[in-house]
Amino acid sequence: MASCIFCKIIKGDIPCFKLFESDKTLAFLDINPLSRGHALVIPKFHGEKLTDIPDEHLAEILPIAKRLVVATGAEEYNILQNNGRGAHQEVGHVHFHMIPKPNAKEGLGISWPQQPTDMDKIKALFDEVKPKV
Question: What GO MF annotations does this protein's record show (predicted)?
């Protein structure tokens, strides 16, 4: 996509600190990091949401994220992937963050608004979703 910043990075129109590249995947340092070693892993196939990306273009993503964890020496870290503006996706191209969490002030800060347990609702959801998986 012509206006996509990540597609421009893939094409080489915008420079990046490239950590890994293959025919389907690119990994590079985030220029607005939350912590030292914060990196992005992206498929070269353009798609806004995870469901837009063919499986074969996702096969390397987690192994590369794992290699970044090892390479940076991160002992605690988050692997994050957002889909849609409401889910905090800022760039409309699928991307995975590897964010080291070295201490309470650096890295990803999140809250976890846990819902109350309702086994009847969970069972109904299970019955709805399980046949589709």
Answer: hydrolase activity; nucleotide binding
Q: How many whole angstroms separate alpha carbon 32 and alpha carbon 11?
A: 21
Task: Report yes or no: 99 and 32 within 8 Å, Cβ to Cβ.
Answer: no
Domains in the chain with CATH codes = 5-132 (3.30.428.10)
> DSSP 3-state assignment of 98?
strand
Q: For the whole model, what pTM was predicted?
A: 0.92
Task: Compute the distance between CA of residue 66 and CA of residue 38 in angstroms, rounded to an integer.
Answer: 13
Dihedral pair phi/psi, residue 99, rounded to 5° = -120, 105
Catalytic center residues: 95
In this prediction, residue 122 carries a pLDDT of 96
